[in-house]
Amino acid sequence: MSAQLIGFLCIAGMLGMIALRMPIAMAMAATGFIGFGLISAFDPALTILQRSAMSTLTSYSFSPIPMFILMGVLASKARMSAELFHGAKSLFGAWRGGMALAAVSSCGVFSAISGSSLATAASMSKVALPEMRARGYADSLSTGTIAAGGTLGIMIPPSIALLLYALITEQSVGDMFIAGIVPGLIGLGLYLLTIAIVVAIKPSLATPGDPTTLKEKLVGLKGLVPFTGIFVLIIGGIYTGLFTPTEAASVGAFGALLIALYRGMRLREFVAAVRETLVISAMIFFMVIGAEIFGYFINVSRISFELVQIVNAMELTPLMVLMAILLLYLLLGMVMDSIAMLLLTVPVVFPLAMAAGLDPIWFGIITVITVELGLITPPIGMNVFVIKSVAPKDTKLTDIFKGVLPFVAADAVRLALIIAFPVLALGLIS
Amino acid sequence: MFIINWIHRLAWLIREAAFLLSLAGGVVLVGSMLTVLADIAARTLFGMTLGAINLTFRGSYEIVRYGLLLSILYALPYALKDGQVIVELFTERLPERIKYWISGFYILFFGLFGFILTSGLLNSIERAARSGQTTQDLGIPMAYIYWLAMVGTVMLGIRGFSVAWEYFTGTETESS
Amino acid sequence: QEVTLRLAHLWPEVSGNHQRVMQAWADQIEEESNGRIAVEVYPGGSLVPPPDQYDAVSDRIVDVTATVQGYTANRFPLTQIVELPGVSDSGAHGACILQSLYDEGHLDAEYEDTHPLFMFTHGPGMFHVVGTEIREPSDLQGLRIRRPTTVVGNILEELGAQAVGMPAPESYTAMQRGVIDGVALPWEATIGFRLAELVDSHTEIAGMYTLSFIMTMNRGVYESMSAENRAVIDANSGLDWAVLAGEVFDDLDQAGIDDAMANDRPINVIEGGTSHPDWAPAMERSLERYLSEVEERGLPAREVYDRAMELRNTCDA
Ligand code: NA
Ligand code: NA
């Protein structure tokens, strides 16, 4: 039996086990172990299991994840994210679905200090979910909004995904970041539009907010101040060279801590915040470890290699090559984490894209949007899982996925726009 | 019955131990955050004084890396129960009892995984002790780091079996 | 086809190291074995991340790897003697010295876990800095420089600079943000990590340092091969491939030099390299410190160093 065939069978088996309530982390680990064992041998497969935690958890590039979560938790304990959200909320006043609009806008602001979708989703969901629930928003709309809003974090710099792409393909990191700005803002705009449309079609999903006067709106803006303080500290620090984006996570968390202390946070609350941070981080890292094990199997199965060969053999036009790659990403995105996917597939498909004559930076932006789409598409969507872990216990995963669908459509529109008008990504680059 | 009670008590003890370990993980996490800040402060001073004030120290990068390792490993046992992501779509209608049994069954494997990680660390300790491998900047023998990590993986193993027991016997009451 | 070898290495697929060494070796093996041995190449650390690559071969997660010994600190102390100031002049030169040390058996104790195929080094490691020029040791005062190894870290600190430990791929962002003022890397890396677009000047102190690399194979896999297949592997091990891999690094350095010339960036070459009187004391002290530390562990550091210095003369620079 060929490695590719074993690969496809194992993935089918994995999807079956996931359907039977197997924790995702374990499904990835088990599939990785069995698949690698069948293709190569079980002794080394066992060694991969034995090493998985050590090699994943000592990776410097993962270190901002708990810090951004801590920042989010502290910010919400100190009512900072809440103020950001409420400020945005009063701007939208009596609009039906105003809270969802406010949540997406807040995600957009939060993105500018967050390199990670997961952290954005985690932080904003803590603030916005309980309130939307209390005001009678459907779970699907509230959770879907934030799961999607979280993905804004990846285009608006700083962005771990864009950085990784730049390093793998030897592009300028600065150019990649600049190229992400406009697509990120387009994403924000389209998400706002999506909410307006969804709520117009089905008003029962959301409730109107309380009307606000112009003065209240302005007071609402004042609520953004402490958040903007941290934002300026981080962005200022990064751009003046005080620290790297990776270190910025710790600085942001410390800034949030200072504000929390200033507002009278007690030791007991701080301990609770750290504990909460660790539980959310643990949930993410269980899956990161699983994905690491799974990655070994995906690699030796040569499934992506096989797919590229097929694409190659068909002598396609550049646009068709691009479409084929995006299709591949959508398929892989169903079962894989975005960072792992970038690391695994970009080295393989990048030469293909270059051979087809595509612009490397433009291709990177499209790739990262598509890969990020995987964070909110079923059955495995990391953002959705993060929200599931933060949301009230009775929130259903299926509801979140349902709520996220309209935003998937919005992202499809964004992709189409950027494919049709490359200047949207490349315009700001000299 | 006496045995059952005794095991139940043991499960409670294990839960408390996992909780304490997660607090240690929290201390490590805050420690690495402060390390980064100290590093930034020291080198800013170094840069502003053109090297005259040199409080800079080596190894902040390393502390962050191994800090991440320990803080997360120490949190995994505590978060084992609530930290799992499950697709419910196809099994929503099963009786609660069955769902508990299924969860218990899977959690057993996390316990097993904890012990597999432990055996891997034992191998690494042996290898590191033999080759004298240390960390790059601080020169800490890798074997020490593996020993520290092992506290977390052993706990994960024990806690996996203990949580499975709670699910199987229906004594799973408090969420961790 | 009898055997499939999985070869994982750290260079990107687009790099010369991949195309001219790793893939070339794979093709050569397939050809000389008449297709009995297939080699699947996994570039860019895609199968195994760099720090774990050596162990991955010893545990047979992959069959062959090319990696940096120094990723696992203090595990290959005698090997890393080739990295010391004043030992090697170029990639090919360092490769010849290192491979000869290994062939003569000086390094055997460090490689019991795997079956080494060949060892090599990159071109001369040097300084690339932003906003300033390094002409004499005092120019380093107060600068923050990314250091590749502890030995270079010691040199930097002796000269009043701050040695910053971070992975090479992080350097770009750190330098762009001004977190570091420069890096110690070979010419080739200014292109590979895109640092050329950020730096303002270059300073070469010939022989300051290099980095050692190894291409190695799982011992069990090697021993379980047929005599015929083993002969193919043996024919593609040793000095020839070592020197070729070093030469490729030297060739790639040219791209970095060309880029600096094309953009009129100053290139300071310190006359006499590590033996220039202004620079020699710091170099010698870090060299001495390294050798005595390794000796304290009961290893024949001086003996290996002395042999390396003899090989320095017999190997072509
Ligand atoms: Na961002
Ligand atoms: Na997905």
From TrEMBL, chain A:
This is TRAP transporter large permease protein. Part of the tripartite ATP-independent periplasmic (TRAP) transport system. It is found in: Cell inner membrane. Residues 12-423 form the TRAP C4-dicarboxylate transport system permease DctM subunit domain. The chain crosses the membrane at residues 6-39, 60-78, 98-124, 145-168, 180-201, 221-242, 248-265, 277-298, 310-332, 339-356, 362-386, 407-429. It is a multi-pass membrane protein. The complex comprises the extracytoplasmic solute receptor protein and the two transmembrane proteins. It comes from the Bacteria. Belongs to the TRAP transporter large permease family. One of its GO terms (cellular component) is plasma membrane. Keywords: Cell inner membrane, Cell membrane, Membrane, Transmembrane, Transmembrane helix, Transport. One of its GO terms (molecular function) is transmembrane transporter activity. The keyword Membrane applies. It holds the Pfam family DctM.
Automatic annotation (TrEMBL), chain B:
One of its GO terms (cellular component) is plasma membrane. The keyword Transport applies. Pfam families: DctQ. Keywords: Cell inner membrane, Cell membrane, Membrane, Transmembrane, Transmembrane helix, Transport. It is found in: Cell inner membrane. It is a multi-pass membrane protein. Residues 33-166 form the Tripartite ATP-independent periplasmic transporters DctQ component domain. The keyword Transport applies. The chain crosses the membrane at residues 12-34, 64-80, 100-122, 143-165. It comes from the Bacteria. One of its GO terms (molecular function) is transmembrane transporter activity. Belongs to the TRAP transporter small permease family. PANTHER family: 2,3-DIKETO-L-GULONATE TRAP TRANSPORTER SMALL PERMEASE PROTEIN YIAM (PTHR35011), SLL1102 PROTEIN (PTHR35011:SF4). Part of the tripartite ATP-independent periplasmic (TRAP) transport system. The complex comprises the extracytoplasmic solute receptor protein and the two transmembrane proteins. This is TRAP transporter small permease protein. It comes from Natronospirillum operosum.
